[in-house]
Amino acid sequence: MSANWKSVALTVLLAALASGGGAWLGAGWMMKRHETPGLHDIVHRKLDLKPEQDARLDAIEARFAAQRQQLEADVRAANRELADAIAASKGDSPEVRAAVDHFHDAMGALQKATIAHVFEMRAVLTPDQARAFDREIAGALTQEPR
Q1: What pLDDT, on a 0 to 100 scale, did the predictor assign at position 1?
Q2: What is the pLDDT of residues 48-93, one digit of tens each?
Q3: Residue 95 and residue 89 in contact, taking contact as beta carbons nearer than 8 Å
Q4: How do residues 125-141 score in pLDDT, each as one tens digit?
Q5: CA gap 54, 15 in Å, rounded
Q6: Fewest CB atoms within 10 A around its CB: which of 24, 41, 126, 127?
Q7: Is 57 in contact with 121 (CB distance < 8 Å)?
Q8: Residue of 119, 40, 109 lying closest to 68 (CA atoms)
Q9: pTM of the complete model
Q10: Residue 34: φ, ψ to 5°
Q11: C-alpha angle 46-67-69 in degrees, rounded to nearest 5
């Protein structure tokens, strides 16, 4: 009888592992399939760029990458500050409100810099490319989560 229970337990364990692994892989596949295309992908894969446009856009993207890293670090720092303020507070305190404001300021700075970057890239495009770019950006911004 003990061998039967071991067999049943092993079967249940293997079934749980297989179903968990399948769910994890399936969720990852679905998330990847529905993720919003990045700005780099929109520009370099969906627009017919001339070599000089490609070079100019690469330089713009390289400059923004460094700026974005700093802005994202500011957002993470503001988020940590908010977490610390919440942990140290018994409720909605002046420290929590100040941390929320700091977080909003950091997120706003990142968003403003990203929009400026979009327009800097757009200035390199021909009118036809810019129209296609605008459609892709608008679609990415209005895409509903699935």
Answers
A1: 55
A2: 889 999 899 889 988 998 899 999 999 999 989 988 888 888 778 8
A3: yes
A4: 999 999 988 888 888 77
A5: 50
A6: 127
A7: yes
A8: 109
A9: 0.65
A10: -105, 10
A11: 90
